[in-house]
Automatic annotation (TrEMBL):
Top-level EC class as recorded in UniProt: ligase
Cross-referenced PANTHER family: DIHYDROFOLATE SYNTHETASE-RELATED (PTHR11136:SF0), FOLYLPOLYGLUTAMATE SYNTHASE-RELATED (PTHR11136)
Gene Ontology terms: biological process: folic acid biosynthetic process
Name this polypeptide is given: Dihydrofolate synthase/folylpolyglutamate synthase
Reaction equation(s) it catalyzes: 10-formyltetrahydrofolyl-(gamma-L-Glu)(n) + L-glutamate + ATP = 10-formyltetrahydrofolyl-(gamma-L-Glu)(n+1) + ADP + phosphate + H(+); 7,8-dihydropteroate + L-glutamate + ATP = 7,8-dihydrofolate + ADP + phosphate + H(+); (6S)-5,6,7,8-tetrahydrofolyl-(gamma-L-Glu)(n) + L-glutamate + ATP = (6S)-5,6,7,8-tetrahydrofolyl-(gamma-L-Glu)(n+1) + ADP + phosphate + H(+); (6R)-5,10-methylenetetrahydrofolyl-(gamma-L-Glu)(n) + L-glutamate + ATP = (6R)-5,10-methylenetetrahydrofolyl-(gamma-L-Glu)(n+1) + ADP + phosphate + H(+)
EC numbers on record: 6.3.2.12, 6.3.2.17
Record's function text: Functions in two distinct reactions of the de novo folate biosynthetic pathway. Catalyzes the addition of a glutamate residue to dihydropteroate (7,8-dihydropteroate or H2Pte) to form dihydrofolate (7,8-dihydrofolate monoglutamate or H2Pte-Glu). Also catalyzes successive additions of L-glutamate to tetrahydrofolate or 10-formyltetrahydrofolate or 5,10-methylenetetrahydrofolate, leading to folylpolyglutamate derivatives.
Pfam families: Mur_ligase_C, Mur_ligase_M
Pathway assigned in UniProt: Cofactor biosynthesis; tetrahydrofolylpolyglutamate biosynthesis; Cofactor biosynthesis; tetrahydrofolate biosynthesis; 7,8-dihydrofolate from 2-amino-4-hydroxy-6-hydroxymethyl-7,8-dihydropteridine diphosphate and 4-aminobenzoate: step 2/2
Family: Belongs to the folylpolyglutamate synthase family.
Keywords: ATP-binding, Folate biosynthesis, Ligase, Magnesium, Metal-binding, Nucleotide-binding
UniProt GO molecular function: ATP binding; dihydrofolate synthase activity; metal ion binding; tetrahydrofolylpolyglutamate synthase activity
Source species of the chain: Treponema porcinum
Residues in Mur ligase C-terminal domain copies: 305-432
Amino acid sequence: MKLSDFLNWLDSYLNFEKQQKKGIFWLESMRFLCGKLGNPQNDVPCIHIAGSKGKGSVSKMIACILNEAGYSCGLYMSPHISDFRERIGTADGFFSDKVYEDAADELYRCVSSIPAEELPGARQFTWFELVTVYSFLCFRTAGVDFAVYETGLGGRLDSTNVVLPLASVIMTIEREHTEFLGDTIEKIAGEKAGIIKPSVPVVVGRQRYPEAGKVFEKQAEKCNSLYKDVYDIIHNLSFLYTSEGFMQVKFECDEFDFPVEAKMRFCGEEQAWNAATASVAVKTAVPSVTVSQIEQGLSKASLPGRFEIRNVPSLYGGIRSLVLDGAHTVSSIFYTVNTLCSVFSCSSFDLLFACAADKDIKDIAPLFKGKCRNITITRPGNVRASDISSVASCFSENEMTFEAQTDCSLAVQSALEKASDSGAVLLVAGSFYLLAEVNEFFSHSATE
């Protein structure tokens, strides 16, 4: 089955990323379908990662470190920006077409053969469940040595939570998806802590809220799991920016014989801590990995949409620089803004912003106050529900002037033109789907 045909078939199933709906999260369907396929999730040793922010970056860092250690590594992440295969690939790219097609054939044949009356709870599979199982099949088909799985939402009932990992990793927790995960940090942390498995070590990244760490530590104790708080075992962490736009990071770890030093494509204090977390996670899961291999892996890791500095078409040559960042939580946007001002030594910039309806826009909007020359707000494409009027209201309440444009393509064009005229750095943030729209805009511009 061609990948394009497979994706068309997938789109006939409920996609939570496009349509948020309560009551669709449980694991019985995953266990049932995996069982039908011979439990492919058990065929490849893995590392499992949850959290509100940083989990994508850490997933990529871990995969790159394992790759540098001589292992082939499958990488499952979401969302994708331009190509579906960004979700299911390797540390340094994609699998062959044959891997994707053979895995698609296997999944399609299996699902098509299941009578409706056999489905658990008489409930059809969701898009994300099928994609997650598809990742298991791709990794088994490719015969990778390891796999890294990033949760989609939460942890306890996330589709990925049928794996039994070598190590579980929980990144920074924030108030997000409260309709589904709970309205307090403790409740949200409890859902994320659901990936902690009996006797499987858990590595916890730096936390903004101490109460989250307490939830994780309690769950680890309950599961008799070795608990590692990165903030307790990492020391003397430092970072500085190079003239080329890289970040030089250095830190010491109680469990390493030597300090770790790497020049990274990722930038920002949070990414420095993410690098430390990834290093501890890999060493916990695969103790044979060396500090040198960690350094090499960190230096090669990068991801689209994570403080991605893009080339600007000549038509908009007046723009000082274009930065694409999928930051969409209060903390992640705070750090993105600070990182941008530090990397480019600027006190102000232009902004193109959009976010989904479930984001904390009341607390996000003030982070831009006094820092933006020109602001353009829009919708994050046609994928996630958004309320541009709520976004506009919050920016207005903070006494910021802006242009509101419901047509995302026109918003992109307007923001680029204004930044080109002002000679400013243009930050595009708030949604990975907005970043996809920017990429689509550039693709169309290149063909015209």
